[in-house]
Every structure is written in C-alpha cells, then in structure tokens.
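INTERNAL TRANSFER SHEET
From: sequence group
To: structure group
Subject: DUF2075 domain-containing protein

Please process the attached sequence and return the structure record in the designated field. Keep the field labels unchanged so the import script can parse them.
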Amino acid sequence: MLENTATTKLAPETKLSAQQQELKKRVLAFCEQHLIQQQTGLFVIQGAAGTGKSVVLSALMATLQRGRNDATSPFYQTNNYLLVNHPEMLKTYKQIAADQPYLRKKDFMKPTPFINQMAKQATTADIVLVDEAHLLLTKSDRYNRFNQENQLAEICKHSRVVILVFDTHQVLKMKSYWDQAKLAALIEAQPHEIFHLTQQFRVHANRATQQWLTALGTQGQLLPRPTDADFDLRIFADANFMYQQLCQRDHEYGLSRLVATADFPYKLDGNTYYVTAPGFKLPWDKNMDPNVTWAERPETLDEVGSIYTIQGFDLNYVAVILGPSVTYDAATQRLKLLPNNYQDHEAFKRRSDLTTQQSTQVKQQIILNSINVLLQRGRYGLYLYATDPQLRAKLLSL
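Return from structure group:
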C-alpha cells in the first residue's frame, strides 16, 4: 500500500516539513504569549487541500496535551480542545486519542456541543484548535442545536486562544458560507496572526498537473491536460470501465475509492440510493461504522463516496464522477454549473441575508468547491468521468 491510513497520517509522531515545523513553533509561541498576558488571540492557518493543515493541528494538540501534565511546561494544567465539524474526521481524532496516553477522547468535539457545554458551565477553555473551520456554521441551525448566529464567534467567546485552519475553496453549504468582509472583521477585531501553508503533500504530481487540478477545481477552467510520469491522470468515456480500472488500482496499491458530486438522489430514510450512468450503478456510501472512517473500510470500494465522507482524507487513487450539475460552456471554455440539478438540498438551505443573485452565485461556488474537494483526494492518480456529454467530450479532447 502506498499511503497509510488517515489515523497513521495524523498521528502525533508524523514527521513535519520545515514549513510545518516553523508554523508549529509560531503557533506555540503565540499561545504561550497570549496565555501569559491573559489576552485573547486568534491564529489563522490557511492553505489549499493537501497542504497538511490537519497534520499540523494534530501535532500541536499532542504538544499542548503533553504539556498539560508537565509542571515545567507553559501549558501546564491548561484546558484545551480540538473541534471539527466533520464526523469522519472526528472519528479519526478519537482513534488517535485512544492510542495516546496523554490524549483524551473527550478533548475532541464537534463545535456545537463545545459551545453549548461552555455556555452551560459558564467557563472558558484555554486553547481551542479548530480543524476544517470552513465547515463552521454562519447561521443558526436548530437541527444541530446551534441557536446562535456564528460558530466561530461563539468559539472565540468561550476560548482564550483559538487556532483554526481555513480554506475558502472548501465551503460546502449555504449555512457555512462566509462573507469575506465579515470574516475579515471578526479576525481583525482581536490580536491575530495568519500563516499560509503552500507546500503540496497529498498530490504527488508535477507543477503543471497541480495547476491543472487547481484551475479546474477553483476556477472551472479547462487547461490542456499535462503529461506527468508521476501522476496517473486519466479521462474516461465510460463510468463502468473507469470503476474497473479503479478496482485494479485498489488491488495493486490499496486505498482507492470512487466518489461523485452530489447530483444523484439521496435521503436519510434507511433506503439504498444509487449513483448511475450508462452501464453503471453503485450505491451511495452507507457510512454505518461509528468508529472506522469510510475510506478505510475495504467494503466501501463497492460504494460511491461523497464530499462528506472523503473531505480531509488522502487516497492513493481517486475516481470522480461529475454529475448533471456540472456541464460545459463552450463560449467561455469553462465549467457551467447548474444548481437546479444539485441533489444536496440541505447544502442550499435558504439564507435571508443573501439576495437571489447572491444566492445563485453562492450555490455555484458551493458546487465548484465540492468539485475541488473531490479532485484533490488522490496522491498518485485521478480518474475522471462526466455524465454531461458535452463536458465529457471536451475533457476527452484536452
């Protein structure tokens, strides 16, 4: 197997790059300074998918929690948490905690329970790390028992120091949409630092291939397909043949999975729903194991993953089906995104603070963000199939 499991990748002993080590050093110094001065602070870590943001957070959490029991440490007896609004990532962190004597499962939480617990106890955490902060809610959500208006604002209210990772190209729901002016105002309202991670660790490809993936996933731009001896980038005319090739990669290298945009019906009613294309039919991910992540279970090779099961995880090979919401505009030579065809209706829950035009633009951005998340999963290969005939023909012609 080329790539280890997600649990291994995020383990505290994972070796950091020079840039990641510098970031960890700066964050720890920031935390120590603000704890000594009894001053609130916000440290923002930015970086595209695959730049190792979660790896750094895991290493930071390990250092903080070791220091919690060390009388010589500046973090002695501190009360620290790591929050992530992503059930699959939370499973991974709790798995790690189970194997480390200085980590406790209860130190890893989803944001809403943390906010409600702090408010009920009228207490403040010392240091709070927030992974996948682009998934934080920016409006109330009664279904998730979040009654305030902004999860980041509430986390800051109940914490002395907050460290968060953020990528605007991974916002996946209207209720997590950030108005950039509001985000900037929240950051500027308190002492803060911003650090940009730039080195790509997931996609083992040359610069031209990385640019091709970034242009498609963040701009909807279709560049000429590059030649790359180290990265297996293929476009397929047939979804079933693509799946057969992916199964072969999984047999050879392991950790290879099929994923799709949220363009095929799905409901949480216990029934099985399918992703379909001519000559192809597989069920959506069932995600039935409460402890093991979807990508790490062998049987999920026979399912189709979604952005919600695969975001934040590395695969060796990923095959992506672009569904009916993803088409092609020959006039602009870019992707044309059709929100009416997108089946993740929860992602498009209406917001009263957006105009109709703004709402349409945000929906299109969410679809593009979901494409970006899916495209950036594979370390050694990406297989791509489009259900739209015009887009499929264009991709094959590149």
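Handover comment: Residues 6-196 form a domain with the Rossmann fold fold (CATH 3.40.50.300). The radius of gyration is 21 Å.
Transfer complete.
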